[in-house]
Amino acid sequence: MHRKLFKWTYFYLVSGMFIPFNIIMLPLIKLLYATGLNSYVGLILGYVFYGLPANVFLTVGYLHSVPRELEESAVIDGATVWQTFWRVIFPLMKPINATITIFTMLNAWNDFMLPMLLIRDKSLMTLPLIQYAFQGQYNTDYGLAFASYLMALLPAVIFFLFAQRWIVSGLVSGAVKS
Fold first, then answer.
1. Which DSSP string corresponds to 12-80?
2. CA separation for the pair 112, 41 (Å, rounded)
3. Which part of the chain is the ABC transmembrane type-1 domain (predicted)?
């Protein structure tokens, strides 16, 4: 029963990956405006719900690579289900959590379409929307535009360099069969 429910829930969540943003864009914007969430809160909710299918897909795929013997040995040692998860499984999930964090951060950092459709207040505009102002209909200030692009790139690069060690450790964790 639980396995069947898990499979159904998994396929339901992952099926969201097959729906392009262009299809759900207008209903999502109408819903967020109707509920008064045309601010950062609505933007965050949009990123969470649209990024959830890919994150679930990556996490479940990674958890299938964790040996079941680790869970069984924790149960034999007397650990509860929650203790097994928090003390055995969750520490092993650092690489996939870092990967998901990087993908989600880069998606939110570089997104242009959702903030452009959702945010109307100039004081709430995100960095890509502000950078869009450097491109006029008849002229573009390339010096200012490229300086802002470089400044916008720095936090993403620094964040990636900080989280890189967990990704690399996750890539080589299953490289050698023991």
1. HHHGGGGS-HHHHHHHHHHHHHHTT--SHHHHHHHHHHHHHHHHHHHHHHHHTTS-HHHHHHHHHTT--
2. 16
3. 1-163
Vertex 148, ends 146 and 153: CA angle to 5°?
95
Query: What radius of gyration, in Å, describes the C-alpha atoms of the chain?
Result: 21
Which numeric CATH code is attached to 2-172? 1.10.3720.10
The predicted pLDDT at position 176 comes to 46
What are the tens digits of pLDDT across the range 139-160? Answer: 887 888 888 888 888 988 888 8
Distance CA 31, CA 27 (A): 6
- Is-above-0.70 flag for pTM? yes
Q: Which of 150, 59, 68 lies closest to 104 in space, CA to CA?
A: 59
Mean predicted confidence (pLDDT) in 1-21: 88
